[in-house]
Amino acid sequence: MARVLVVDDDALVAEVVDRYLRNAGFDVDRAADGPSALRTAEARPPDLVVLDLMLPGLDGLEVFRRLTARRPVPVIMLTARADEADRITGLEVGADDYVTKPFSPRELTLRVRSVLRRAAEAAAAPEPGVLRAGALVVDPAARTATRHEVPLGLTVREFDLLAFLLRRPGHAFTRVELLEQVWGWSYGDPSTVTVHIRRLREKIEDDPTAPRLLVTVWGVGYRYDAPPAVAGAEASPGDPRQAG
User: Where are the alpha helices (DSSP H) in the chain?
Assistant: First the structure.
């Protein structure tokens, strides 16, 4: 039984979400503020966190940072408004999904299932070898990424997106395809991908305003272009980087 931690200072919202998730077969813990959320997560590590952005004590973003610094955990953020800035803020820090209040508890339950399913599939998938692109080195098994031997500090979703593209050099993907392949979403806001590509460029490109690795394919989406010295020379037969 997957354990879900619901963090929301609105008692009514927390109660409704708790009831729907329990009815769907989940083990549920609840917290009404940031500090208690961290204590609960420490005592009973969750498989997924439903996290409100607006919290007393510590705001949702700070709770997210501290939770994910301890160990990787999928997070669905709740935002109080349908404002794009709220959504992008949650996605930029690495949230797996977001839901805008007021929301359907049934839809939230479906999203919890979807995020947990994708996380389980990712954990069960065989890990490829170390991926290299010039000074960029990504190790999917160790979940590390460095550039010039300096850790990049990628969020969970930034890491997944970068590794996905590095394994498929020269293949152009639409934003919808990337949502499906990396996030496991059959629906969602394509701007999610745009935000993550921008953040990755800031971390891996010499000049993020003129990207040479993660390039835009106008009218399509995005493509990873391997540096010439890496494109063929370091790929061995059967190397997953040759896929696609």
Answer: 11-23, 34-43, 60-70, 84-92, 105-124, 156-166, 175-178, 191-204, 228-231
DSSP 212: S
**Nearest-5° Cα angle at 45, 43 to 46:** 135
Question: Per residue in 28-65, pLDDT tens?
Answer: 999 999 999 999 999 999 999 999 988 888 888 899 98
pLDDT at 187: 64
Domains and CATH numbers, the chain: 3-124 (3.40.50.2300), 131-242 (1.10.10.10)
Cα dihedral sign, 111-114-118-123: positive
CA distance 32 to 57: 10
Report yes or no on whether pTM surpasses 0.70.
Answer: no
The kind and range of the H/E element at 49 are: strand 48-52
DSSP, collapsed to helix, strand or coil, labels residue 96 as coil
Tokens, residue 84:
């794009």
Read off the tokens for 189.
């806001």
| Measured distance CA(43)–CA(59) in Å, rounded | 20
CA–CA distance, 180 with 242 (Å, rounded to integer): 21
User: What is the DSSP secondary structure assignment for residue 6, as one 8-state letter?
Assistant: E
pLDDT digit string, tens, across residues 200-244: 999 999 999 999 999 999 999 999 998 865 444 343 333 433 333
**Residue from 186, 188, 18 nearest 98 by CA:** 188
**3-state DSSP assignment of residue 234:** coil
